């Protein structure tokens, strides 16, 4: 396969991943509304999980192909990308409000999940038992989020979640349950196709450029699966609703580790490259840690904070490429 064709496959794959996730989430939101699930709960669970569907598709497909570095690099790189680019660019466009629950409850979950990944990956693998641990933690986290959405959210946060659902799935009210199920099926198929195209293109590019699959996973694949999140966050920032981006990023980062790596390592144990433990995961922890005082200061992420986060990502990217 030629490099131009591989680049085209990556672009088409990214577009299909974003479109497939959108179609599937619309169907899932309709089913959740039909089941009379509160809108806040839909925002905290269905929509949050929908933002991680591209990463899940690509990482699971990569692992089944034996490309563990791409699968793991996609998750770690996506989480770094989410903090540095999605939040950084959103805050640069317009300062964002920070809800109290994001500081007290959601950030600690994100940091703990990232730290737990570092601890479990130190032996160079993620086996099925460790995958089961992540899945169990995912169930507990989802249960907690449902409880939070039903009874403990402040009124302002509940309104923001309702706006999130409306913005991400504005035409989610399909005519029938059958149509919603059809959307879920079609969306799943598009996701699988998009993930396959993205992987084929990325692997070809990595071989042609002499780059490792780890770097391709951390950069091209991670940015590709994170592209829909960037588009959603920029749209929210332009509408003055960019506090949505913070909740989406934190929720996505938690689900990327607990759901994607949990499910993937349950299906097939993963080998962890030493550089991911000694370099990439520490950058993820570092950016996550830096985010915390920014969120606490006036409960606003300002343009200066956005510049620091985006600059941190560019620094990481530069060091990653120079290290080879």
Distance between the termini: 24 Å
Q: Round the Cα radius of gyration to an integer and report it.
A: 18 Å
Percentage beta strand: under 5%
pLDDT < 50 runs, ≥5 residues: none
- The structural class is mainly alpha
Q: Which strand order do you get reading across the main beta sheet? A: 1-4
* Helicity range: over 70%
List the domain count as a whole number: 1
Largest sheet: 2 strands, antiparallel
Q: What is the fold named in CATH at topology level?
A: A middle domain of Talin 1
SS summary, helix count:
12
Overall pLDDT, averaged?
A: 79
CATH architectural name: Up-down Bundle
Instruction: Give the beta-strand count.
Output: 4
CATH superfamily: NCX, central ion-binding region
Shape: globular
Pattern of helices and strands: HHHHEHEHHHHHEHEH
> What is the CATH class?
Mainly Alpha
């Amino acid at each position: 396969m030629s490099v131009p064709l591989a680049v085209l496959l990556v672009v088409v794959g990214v577009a299909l991943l974003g479109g497939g996730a959108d179609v599937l989430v619309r169907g899932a939101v309709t089913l959740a509304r039909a089941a009379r699930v509160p809108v806040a709960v839909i925002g905290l669970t269905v929509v949050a999980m929908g933002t991680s569907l591209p990463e899940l598709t690509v990482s699971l497909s990569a692992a089944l192909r034996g490309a563990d570095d791409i699968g793991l690099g996609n998750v770690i790189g996506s989480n770094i990308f989410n903090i540095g680019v999605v939040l950084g660019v959103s805050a640069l466009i317009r300062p964002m409000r920070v809800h109290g629950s994001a500081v007290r409850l959601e950030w600690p979950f994100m940091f703990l999940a990232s730290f737990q990944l570092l601890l479990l990956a130190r032996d160079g693998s993620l086996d099925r038992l460790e995958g089961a641990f992540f899945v169990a933690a995912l169930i507990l986290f989802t249960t907690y989020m449902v409880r939070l959405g039903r009874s403990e959210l402040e009124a302002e946060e509940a309104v923001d979640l309702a706006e999130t659902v409306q913005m991400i799935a504005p035409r989610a009210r399909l005519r029938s349950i059958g149509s919603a199920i059809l959307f879920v099926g079609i969306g799943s198929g598009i996701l699988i196709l998009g993930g396959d195209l993205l992987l084929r293109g990325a692997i070809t590019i990595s071989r042609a450029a002499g780059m490792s699959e780890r770097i391709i996973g951390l950069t091209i694949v991670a940015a590709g699966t994170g592209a829909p999140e960037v588009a959603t966050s920029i749209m929210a920032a332009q509408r003055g609703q960019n506090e949505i981006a913070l909740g989406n990023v934190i929720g996505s980062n938690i689900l990327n580790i607990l759901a994607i790596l949990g499910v993937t390592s349950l299906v097939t144990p993963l080998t962890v490259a030493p550089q991911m433990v000694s370099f990439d995961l520490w950058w993820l922890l570092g950016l996550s840690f830096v985010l915390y005082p920014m969120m606490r200061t006036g409960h606003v992420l300002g343009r200066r904070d956005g510049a620091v986060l985006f600059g941190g990502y560019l620094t990481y990217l530069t060091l990653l490429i120079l290290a080879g």
